[in-house]
């Protein structure tokens, strides 16, 4: 079985092959960068004006070229020679100067007649291994992801080691298009973006805000039952706070700087809540009897993501988290994490997600990325393994995925299409309490530093709503649907009774709308299904006479007639249980 690293090498090789094909067909194009990515690869070009119909031509040329590619030959050159090789390409020259400035070796890789500036990481025999690929789409992308730079043409593609794997992936992509949260969110009128407000800053409509609030309230209710207390913190803070926490040195490039008309002080919008939570803890003295202290926070966070990486609700600049920080003694850590894992298990089951954990540890090649004593890191990494095993939790290793202050136990959920998403996290942090000089008084009267546990369950509600919309293809469970019931009178003669039914549902706090338009019943049903309404109550002459309703589910199943009281009892039970319709998770 091929590893993730093998796939990266294959796709990196495919990006070289695509660039070679582009240059044969469009000699004036200027290649810039072409890395492998999670599900494929891309390459950015300047001076390339093509459309979607050209992708098949490029793909055909790739199949022709690769027959003569027997290997990737490495060559080390000095800066002068590298600039000479890529004269006329300002992008390659910029990269070469960067390598020179860092004192790094400049390496070139050649296959066939194509040579590229590259650090390496390729398959051994392209002509035999590189056969199953597909070019997928075109996009615009700024050079180095900055809006200040020129817009380039990006070509996306994917590659696998077998035709079967490629076919399965392409089928999944087609299904994913139907489930694209950007399409569903627009169709259901849940949120919008505005150029005047700014990229990556979502605006929620009443329906979208309702879903967001219901998700947050469910998490908050679950947390409150376990002794968590909600706090609220400022949207920005002095740079000094982030200098102490370590974010200023390790994370500043992802933070928005804030300026004042009246002060020379340096401020930043907060990218996470943990530094400010330390100050709530530090505001008063604590005894060992006070611990654990559990703070939760749904306040907004902000991160300066690159414009080219923003994508609907999947990657935004403004978001919140179901963030929690627990200050506790060392002997309380196991119980607190077990409690957090149990809550997470319950909430994941509610949404129908299967999951596993990634144990995110240090990158051994780059110790400079991390704060704290390496011996403490060793201890916590081993401790995290023991926690996973004690809870009989499936996990896999993720070297290099740790936070700069602590390893992480990250939950990776699998959606209805088998795609994986990181949601919750648990972290055992010795670093931040020590940097902020947090203390509690122990039994013997000595001052000790608490341990800080970082914990989220759904993570960002923005991203979680994106996952929910795609997981359920917009067919949300009844408790989350903005409009749970549509009352559909067949003709105007039934409007009076339909109105009384509607009022009874409203009185029971059921989200209902009356469709009293002069449209056919078929049109009303179609519109309700397009709006992903869970239930339609059809009312004709028969229902008026018998004071009943006929229920039509979103799936098309029909039941009744029965009394409105029976329907109310059934739907309230479904809402209370947060039930999921299995039909809503099926792929087409």
Automatic annotation (TrEMBL):
Single GO term (MF): tRNA binding
Record-level GO cellular component terms: cytoplasm
Classification via SMART domains: tRNA_SAD
Domain (Aminoacyl-transfer RNA synthetases class-II family profile): residue spans on this chain: 211-477
Key words of the record: Aminoacyl-tRNA synthetase, ATP-binding, Cytoplasm, Ligase, Metal-binding, Nucleotide-binding, Protein biosynthesis, RNA-binding, tRNA-binding, Zinc
EC class name: ligase
Membrane spanning stretches: none
Cofactor note: Binds 1 zinc ion per subunit.
Record's catalysed reaction(s): tRNA(Thr) + L-threonine + ATP = L-threonyl-tRNA(Thr) + AMP + diphosphate + H(+)
GO biological process: threonyl-tRNA aminoacylation
Family affiliation: Belongs to the class-II aminoacyl-tRNA synthetase family.
PANTHER family for this protein: THREONINE--TRNA LIGASE, CHLOROPLASTIC_MITOCHONDRIAL 2 (PTHR11451:SF44), THREONINE-TRNA LIGASE (PTHR11451)
Protein name as catalogued: Threonine--tRNA ligase
Species this chain originates from: Candidatus Woesebacteria bacterium GW2011_GWA1_39_21
Lineage, uppermost ranks: Bacteria, Candidatus Woeseibacteriota
């Amino acid at each position: 079985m091929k590893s993730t690293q093998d796939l990266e090498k294959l796709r990196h090789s495919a990006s070289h092959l695509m660039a070679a094909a582009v240059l044969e067909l469009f000699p004036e194009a200027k290649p810039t960068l072409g890395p492998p990515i999670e599900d494929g690869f891309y390459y950015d070009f300047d001076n390339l004006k093509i459309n979607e119909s050209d992708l098949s031509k490029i793909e055909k040329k790739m199949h022709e070229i690769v027959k003569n590619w027997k290997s990737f030959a490495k060559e080390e050159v000095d800066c002068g020679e590298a600039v000479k090789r890529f004269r006329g390409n300002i992008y390659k020259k910029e990269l070469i100067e960067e390598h020179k400035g860092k004192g790094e070796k400049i390496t070139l890789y050649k296959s066939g007649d194509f040579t590229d500036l590259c650090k390496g990481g390729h398959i051994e025999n392209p002509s035999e291994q590189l056969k199953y690929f597909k070019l997928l789409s075109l996009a615009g992308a700024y050079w180095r992801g900055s809006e200040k730079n020129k817009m380039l043409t990006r070509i996306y593609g994917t590659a696998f080691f077998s035709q079967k794997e490629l076919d399965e992936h392409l089928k999944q992509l087609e299904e994913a298009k139907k489930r694209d949260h950007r399409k569903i969110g627009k169709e259901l009128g849940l949120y919008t973006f505005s150029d005047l407000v700014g990229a990556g800053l979502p605006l929620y409509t009443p329906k979208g805000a309702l879903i967001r609030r219901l998700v947050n309230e469910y998490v908050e209710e679950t947390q409150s039952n376990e002794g968590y207390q909600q706090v609220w913190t400022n949207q920005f803070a002095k740079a000094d706070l982030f200098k102490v926490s370590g974010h200023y040195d390790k994370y500043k490039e992802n933070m928005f700087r804030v300026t004042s008309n009246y002060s020379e002080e340096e401020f930043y919008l907060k990218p996470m809540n943990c530094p400010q939570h330390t100050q709530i803890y530090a505001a008063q003295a604590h005894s060992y009897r006070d611990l654990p202290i559990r703070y939760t926070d749904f306040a907004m966070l902000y991160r300066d993501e690159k414009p080219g990486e923003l994508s609907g609700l999947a990657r935004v600049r403004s978001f919140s988290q179901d963030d929690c920080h627990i200050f506790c003694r060392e002997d309380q850590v196991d119980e607190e994490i077990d409690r957090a894992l149990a809550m997470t298990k319950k909430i994941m089951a509610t949404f129908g997600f299967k999951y596993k954990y990634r144990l995110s540890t240090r990158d051994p090649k780059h110790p400079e990325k991390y704060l704290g004593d390496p011996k403490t890191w060793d201890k916590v990494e081993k401790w995290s393994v023991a926690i996973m095993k004690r809870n009989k939790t499936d996990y896999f290793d993720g070297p290099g995925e740790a936070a700069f202050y602590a390893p992480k136990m990250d939950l990776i959920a699998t959606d209805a299409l088998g795609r994986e998403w990181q949601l919750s996290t648990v972290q055992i942090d010795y670093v931040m309490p020590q940097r902020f000089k947090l203390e509690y008084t122990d039994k013997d009267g000595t001052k000790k530093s608490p341990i800080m546990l970082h914990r989220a369950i759904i993570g960002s509600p923005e991203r979680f709503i994106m996952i929910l919309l795609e997981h359920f293809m917009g067919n949300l469970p009844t408790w989350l649907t903005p409009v749970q019931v549509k009352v559909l009178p067949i003709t105007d003669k039934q409007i009076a009774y339909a109105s009384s039914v509607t009022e009874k549902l409203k009185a029971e706090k059921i989200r209902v709308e009356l469709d009293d338009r002069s449209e056919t019943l078929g049109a009303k049903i179609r519109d309700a299904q397009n709006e992903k309404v869970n239930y339609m109550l059809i009312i004709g002459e028969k229902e008026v006479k018998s004071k009943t309703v006929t229920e039509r589910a979103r799936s098309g199943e029909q039941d009744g007639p029965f009394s409105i009281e029976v329907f109310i009892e059934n739907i309230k039970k479904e809402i209370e249980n947060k039930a999921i319709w299995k039909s809503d998770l099926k792929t087409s």
